[in-house]
Design a protein that fits this description.
This protein is α/β, with parallel strands linked by helices. The chain contains 14 helices and 19 strands. The protein has a 7-stranded mixed sheet.
Length: about 400
């Protein structure tokens, strides 16, 4: 029996997504024989209310100098992080502040602090994206964040006014080591603010594609409170975000140092109403995932029988879970169009569907496109209006399988 990563209570998996590769492990045909796989099982801890992977690959397998995700490729995300940086600057920063962001990627958020002349430091473990940030003049340390890293940063730069993260905290299995580092690094009145995909949205929408190797946790306000409380910190504010199909931004401070916003209690009550504190909710989620899988495969097989051309759009990390869980390969999806150069000319992890540049999507247009980047739907549909105008149809699978 496995133990909870947060409180060490016994946990049992309630669902398996089967044999899965690394979600961002886009590869060449020559690498097929040595591709890494693991079983993607999920569990819910009844004690601390944490949704988590039962097993996760080692961090070095997932985050390295060939990491295939760059935040700056989306205009919507660029604007989102501008707003995030501005919110932190106006709400929480005083004179001569120091801001630290972990998993700072190519500097899409931290760059706004750099432009404003604010002392800053990014902590990014993937060497290639850390270099991309440094090339833009953003101070970046290539390392994993923990207590030792925090002590090193504090000794060199002093304590931090604000600690930021976006779509990063949910990646870190030893989350207590990170929170311990945050407690070391922050000033007495400093704040920690971060956002990640929200468990409530995943359950409500059956967006199981949020579950893959990097996302060792899916957070709720309840589970975040459980993580930070042993380190003398409390949840003082939160704000829903539209990113990644539904995220929540959490703000924490040392206990008693800041006023707790009324919406914290309101969110905790809503989570109870959703049943995010009960295993029965996740047993129902298991059934919803199985139903979604069955319906998507049935639709794609029907279109194949009708001799329709079907491609994918956006070779996302999330698409890896869907393709491998559903057993969808190049027999059902011809290729996946993606604008990220590092992915083009390679194959999707596990399913081995070719990844092609956008030009191939448009010449000639297919009959149908599976929208793996559904969380960027408006941006993509606006960009590809010509496809729709010529009779092309989009297939989505969140919150249900349908042809738009």
């Amino acid at each position: 029996m496995k133990s909870c990563r947060v409180c060490n209570s016994p946990i049992e998996p309630f669902h398996s997504f089967g044999r899965q590769p690394l979600a961002n492990g886009f590869l060449t045909a020559a690498e097929f024989p040595t591709e890494y796989f693991f079983e993607l099982k999920v569990a819910f801890c009844d004690r601390c209310k944490m949704f988590q992977l039962v097993d996760q690959p080692e961090p070095e397998r997932m985050f390295h100098d060939a990491y295939a995700f760059f935040s700056g490729t989306s205009k919507v995300m660029a604007e989102h992080f501008r707003e995030f940086a501005e919110s932190v600057r106006t709400k929480y920063l005083g004179q001569d502040p120091f801001v630290v962001e972990i998993g700072s990627n190519d500097g899409i958020c931290l760059g706004h602090f750099a432009k404003a002349g604010i002392r800053h430091l990014g902590v990014e473990p993937s060497a290639n994206v850390a270099k991309a940030a440094r090339d833009k003049g953003i101070q970046t340390l290539c390392a994993f964040f923990n207590k030792d890293t925090a002590e090193r940063i504090r000794a060199e730069h002093g304590p931090a006014d604000a600690f930021l993260a976006a779509n990063v905290m949910c990646h870190i299995a030893d989350i207590h080591s990170v929170v311990e580092g945050i407690a070391v690094l922050l000033k007495p009145d400093g704040i920690c603010t971060f956002e990640d995909p929200y468990l409530g949205d995943v359950v409500e929408k059956t967006s199981y594609d949020q579950i893959y190797d990097e996302h060792v946790f899916l957070f709720s306000a309840m589970s975040i409170s459980s993580v930070f409380a042993p380190h003398g910190m409390e949840l003082v504010d939160l704000a829903p975000q539209p990113t990644h199909g539904g995220s929540l931004r959490y703000t924490l401070a040392r206990k008693g140092k800041r006023k707790v916003a009324p919406r914290v209690a309101a969110c905790l009550e809503r989570e109870k109403a959703l049943g995010l504190h009960r295993i029965s909710t996740f047993e129902q989620f298991h059934k919803s995932c199985e139903r979604s899988k069955t319906e998507l495969v049935k639709l794609l097989r029907k279109l194949k029988a009708e001799k329709k051309r079907v491609v994918g759009y956006a070779a996302t990390s999330k698409s890896t879970s869907v393709l491998n869980y559903c057993g969808i390969g190049p027999d059902l999806i011809e290729f996946i169009s993606d604008s990220t150069p590092i992915k083009q000319g390679k194959f999707t992890p596990g399913a081995h569907i070719p990844v092609a540049p956008p030009e191939k999507f448009r010449d000639p247009y297919p009959d149908y496109a599976v929208l793996f980047g559904w969380n960027h739907m408006k941006e993509i549909l606006d960009k590809e209006s010509e496809f729709t105008a010529r009779g092309g149809k989009w297939i989505v699978f969140v919150p249900k399988v349908e042809v738009l």
